[in-house]
Write a structure and sequence with these properties.
The chain has twelve helices and 17 strands. Helix 4 packs antiparallel against helix 6 and helix 6 (about 185-200) runs antiparallel to helix 9 (about 235-245). With about 350 residues, it is α+β, with helices and mostly antiparallel strands. The mean pLDDT is about 95. Strands 12, 13, 14, 15, 16 and 17 form a six-stranded antiparallel beta sheet that branches. Strands 1-2-3-5-4 form a five-stranded antiparallel beta sheet. The protein folds into three domains: about 10-85, Phosphorylase Kinase, domain 1; about 95-265, Transferase(Phosphotransferase), domain 1 (Orthogonal Bundle), CATH 1.10.510; about 275-345.
Length: about 350
Amino acid sequence: MRIEATIRYTKIRQIATNDAFCSEVFLIDEPQLGNAMVAKEVEKPHFRLPTSDFFNEARIMFSSACPNVVPIQYACETEDRICLVMPYYRNGSLADRIKVDPISPREAVRVGIGILSGLASIHDKGLIHFDVKPSNVLFSDTDEPMVADFGQARRVDANGTSAVPPVYMFGEAPEFATMKIGTVLSDLYHVGLLLYRAINGDRFYVGQIPRNESEIARLTAAGKLPDRSAFMPHVPKRMRTIIRRALAVDPARRYQSAPEFSSELAKTVVDLDWVTTSQPDGTTTWKATRPDRTDLVVELVQRGSFCDVCVWTDNNGSKRAKDPSSFKRNGISRPEAEAHLKRVFENL
């Protein structure tokens, strides 16, 4: 017996759009479930698929249900659109959190483990996400990282591969340019890139991207974008090693599964969890809270073409310079300041 039902919701405001894929995302008032939710609307002509395949994204989300995957509430259609309704998460996305400053190393470990938990569930279903990036990681009401947006997800064939769908230009894995196919290891590369961006801050990464699209593809395929030798000075050595392995150009040299990658992250011990704050005047401050001890603060001050570096302890607002002869430098060049900061963080 076929039943056709009427579903109504009211659009409150648009919160995202993707012109390339003819989709829009709205915050909605959903009276059937009695809550604010999110509706993703995709124009049917975009699909170029049989009608039976219009709900592929909804089916993938439903089958991949786990605590680190955004759940789907329901899917429906109008004459010209497919509509997917999901929870609204007020804590925003990872892209929001790293737009200016990075998240702390300990938070990067937590977020990475959560994302990899979601991907493990997706991969177990024989799927590749193909679009893991900061804007597709949302935070639940309990601040749990959740993988979102399955519009580019594909099922693997008997060889564990899939043709590459249209993807985000700045997130292409190196093998996309050479082999035109992807595997679950492509998703793990994307997690490595996401962690690189998260632990350094997006401005650090975006500053490396050339304007020419062909140059982006060339540098990515050569393993030079992002620059694996360049990290913010506070990033722990172990995190650098983990991220570099995830970003290996040769998929065989990456972590071979989401659980393996997650296990390596879980072994990371962050002694000083530096929180980074940058100011419009070029000043950057790193602060690490130490239980039962005074906080540590490192500051880089830009003064024209010269820099000052200082380190102090902070006890409830009472500041005291820490070993000025070793850590303090005034009037040095930017390259000298960056080299000195590297030594500072290695010795704190």
